[in-house]
Sequence to fold (84 residues):
Amino acid sequence: MACVYQFEKEDVMAQPDFHLFTVQEYLWEEEHSRVKREYRQGQVYNISGGSPEHSQIALNLAAGLKRELRGKFAGPSRATLKWE
Fold:
């Protein structure tokens, strides 16, 4: 038996208003921003970023893994790699 729920007006959450950016607006904002962001279909999303120190630690770790795993069955890869 199917369950049917009838929505009352107060049950429906209001959709937030937001601004769709043009590419030109995004590029201007990006030049003046201290936050790393991504543009997708008019919407701008903050991207988590690290400090220069964090970046150096990650690079050193990757270099060490690559050296230690050389010739083995696998090697290190970035999180952005899509495995198929």
Remarks:
- The longest strand covers residues 37-40.
- The chain has two helices and two strands.
